[in-house]
């Protein structure tokens, strides 16, 4: 931290002292652990908690993990992708309504968007068990209009898991979208309309492009936790909907297969990074950080 | 006005608002169900998650299911402790990032951002790998959970306080200095009170993040049981309805804090105006 230069006020050492505890905490418990995870992923797979592990640069851990668990891995990315697109559509509608149509109810509606967070994630997810139950009114209604057959169910299907993911991560989409819609100068939209753009054209030529930073941030904040989540898959799905989080969790805590679990975590992180980088570049929001 | 844009405008004005409200309903129905289920008597069929009959029993005996209240106590202790530590060191980092220019500032911003961008399962398994590697594998518990919670709350504190600090004009501070306040006086009389709402918001956010965390906690908890872990464990055998009492109470308390905060900030704005 000695390379601190040109303070705006107070000495350079002040900045260093302010940063120090946080930097140490993140270094010790975020950076070093990540290194440790990569090391774990290269463990000799024959090691165990009792006999100890050795880093043997066993790259086959990665191919083994992929071979054994590619289905839940792909499933996680697909479910997260679908849930993120639903979040984008629903979240855009809600954020747009709050930013432009809510008038003086804005603050109240924003509080309602974060209100779900006031109750425990797990307890709320359990509520979906009741909403989607086999004899619940949602299933009954869908059966009445023949969307579902008389024997079909929602619980323990991909539909329930994706509905749960969409529900749980929707506020992470709405808030950044709202933040970027709020900033749009309404005169730009009026100008488009003065120039005879109908509202649809005005939306796609003016509002949508200006909201792209929010779209990029929102999709990221939704996709990442959704891809790593296993609570929805476990509580609302069946073993057929198991996601990569379930597998990693089980390998670490139940099976004790640290090498495979580490390799899967590293693969998940790498896949997410690649997807996000491509996406952020495409949406043109590199200055997100 | 041509018909297309008239239709468009009508859609804009009515359907969008109605659609947005429907999305809000989707977001809030589960909260309503948590409240409803806190009055549910499920003694007929314990592992069926459905409303069976009305009772006040869950509210009168919230600690009846064994382990619930001790898990709740553990969660509150960890969350309070993690919140205090994360809020203090996170606020310090935010001040350094907003009020000081130094090389490596950009790198520091990225480092702060990364924990928020990594999936929890990866953060959790990294920490577990480290704890096992340094021989703490058998001693996972309260303190390893605490360390993990401070780590992931920290970034959220920094971002929240930074937002508040960044939006603050330095004119008031300069005015104080012009009136011969020294740096410490200026900080404690002007800067800190102005940033305080942001710090408070950050603390509330960290408390709820910490209290609610399951994925990272579950990997690093050893034999310690937090409230979300209690819910998870009981989900396999049939959830006691008392967890909905806890959920409802949390909801009411958090809502009250937000409303009081909002009313106060409005009142302050009115007196300033």
From TrEMBL, chain A:
Transport recorded as keyword: yes
Domain ABC transmembrane type-1 positions: 73-277
Keywords on record: Cell membrane, Membrane, Transmembrane, Transmembrane helix, Transport
Membrane topology: Multi-pass membrane protein
UniProt superkingdom: Bacteria
Coiled coil, from the record: none
Gene Ontology cellular component list: plasma membrane
Cellular localisation: Cell membrane
BP terms from Gene Ontology: transmembrane transport
Lipoprotein found in the keyword field: no
Gene3D superfamilies for this protein: MetI-like
PROSITE patterns reported for this sequence: ABC_TM1
InterPro entries recorded: MetI-like (IPR000515), MetI-like_sf (IPR035906)
Record-linked SUPFAM superfamilies: MetI-like
Transmembrane segments: 12-35, 77-100, 107-127, 155-179, 200-224, 258-280
Family note: Belongs to the binding-protein-dependent transport system permease family. CysTW subfamily.
Protein name: ABC transporter permease
UniProt organism field: Aeromicrobium flavum
Lineage: Bacteria, Bacillati, Actinomycetota, Actinomycetes, Propionibacteriales
From TrEMBL, chain B:
Annotated transmembrane regions: 15-39, 76-98, 110-134, 140-165, 186-209, 239-260
Protein's name in the database: ABC transporter permease
Biological process terms in GO annotation: transmembrane transport
GO terms under cellular component: plasma membrane
Span of domain ABC transmembrane type-1: 72-261
Recorded family membership: Belongs to the binding-protein-dependent transport system permease family. CysTW subfamily.
UniProt KW Transmembrane keyword: yes
Pfam families: BPD_transp_1
Annotated compartments: Cell membrane
Keyword entries, A-Z: Cell membrane, Membrane, Transmembrane, Transmembrane helix, Transport
InterPro entries in alphabetical order: Bact_Polyamine_Transport (IPR051789), MetI-like (IPR000515), MetI-like_sf (IPR035906)
PANTHER family assigned: PUTRESCINE TRANSPORT SYSTEM PERMEASE PROTEIN POTI
Keyword Nucleotide-binding: no
Membrane topology field: Multi-pass membrane protein
Organism whose genome encodes this protein: Aeromicrobium flavum
Chief location: membrane
């Amino acid at each position: 931290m000695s390379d601190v230069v040109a303070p705006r006020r107070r000495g350079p050492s002040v900045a260093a002292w302010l940063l120090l505890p946080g930097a140490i905490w993140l270094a010790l418990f975020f950076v070093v652990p990540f290194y440790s995870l990569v090391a774990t992923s290269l463990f000799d797979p024959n090691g165990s908690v009792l006999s100890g592990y050795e880093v043997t640069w066993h790259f086959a851990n990665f191919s083994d993990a992929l071979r054994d668990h590619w289905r839940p891995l792909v499933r996680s990315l697909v479910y997260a992708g679908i849930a993120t697109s639903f979040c984008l559509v629903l979240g855009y509608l809600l954020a747009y309504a709050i930013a432009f149509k809510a008038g003086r109810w804005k603050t109240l509606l924003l509080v309602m968007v974060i209100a779900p967070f006031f109750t425990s994630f797990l307890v709320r997810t359990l509520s979906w068990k009741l909403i989607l139950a086999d004899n619940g009114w949602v299933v009954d209604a869908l059966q009445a209009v023949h969307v579902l057959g008389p024997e079909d169910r929602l619980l323990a299907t991909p539909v329930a898991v994706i509905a749960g993911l969409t529900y749980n991560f929707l506020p992470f989409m709405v808030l950044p979208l709202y933040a970027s819609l709020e900033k749009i100068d309404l005169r730009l939209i009026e100008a488009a309309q003065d120039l005879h753009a109908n509202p649809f054209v005005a939306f796609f030529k003016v509002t949508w492009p200006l909201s792209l930073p929010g779209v990029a941030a929102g999709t990221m904040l939704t996709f990442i936790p959704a891809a790593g989540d296993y609570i929805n898959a476990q509580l609302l799905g069946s073993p057929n909907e198991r996601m990569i989080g379930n597998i990693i969790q089980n390998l670490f805590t139940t099976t004790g297969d640290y090498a495979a679990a580490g390799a899967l975590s590293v693969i998940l992180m790498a896949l997410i990074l690649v997807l996000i980088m491509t996406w952020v570049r495409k949406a043109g929001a590199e200055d997100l950080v | 006005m041509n018909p297309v844009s008239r239709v468009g405008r009508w859609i804009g004005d009515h359907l969008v608002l109605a659609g947005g409200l429907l999305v809000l309903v989707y977001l809030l129905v589960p909260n309503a169900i948590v409240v409803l289920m806190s009055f549910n008597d499920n003694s007929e069929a314990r592992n069926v998650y459905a409303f069976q009959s009305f009772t006040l029993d869950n509210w009168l005996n919230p600690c009846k299911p064994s382990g619930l209240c001790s898990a709740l106590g553990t969660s509150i202790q960890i969350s309070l402790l993690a919140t205090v530590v994360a809020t203090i060191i996170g606020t310090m980092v935010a001040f350094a990032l907003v009020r000081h220019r130094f090389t490596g500032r950009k790198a520091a911003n990225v480092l702060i951002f990364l924990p928020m961008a990594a999936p929890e399962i990866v953060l959790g398994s990294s920490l577990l790998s480290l704890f096992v590697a340094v021989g703490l594998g058998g001693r996972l518990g309260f303190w390893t959970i605490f360390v993990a919670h401070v780590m992931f709350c920290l970034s959220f504190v920094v971002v929240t306080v930074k937002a508040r600090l960044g939006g603050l004009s330095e004119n008031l501070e300069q005015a104080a200095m012009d009136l011969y306040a020294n740096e410490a006086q200026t900080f404690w009389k002007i800067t800190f009170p102005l940033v305080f709402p942001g710090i408070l918001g950050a603390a509330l956010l960290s408390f709820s993040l910490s209290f609610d965390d399951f994925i990272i906690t579950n990997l690093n908890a050893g034999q310690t049981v937090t409230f979300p872990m209690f819910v998870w464990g009981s989900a396999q055998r049939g959830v006691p309805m008392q967890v909905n009492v806890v959920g409802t109470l949390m909801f009411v308390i958090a809502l009250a804090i937000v409303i009081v905060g909002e009313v106060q900030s409005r009142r302050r704005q009115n007196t300033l105006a």
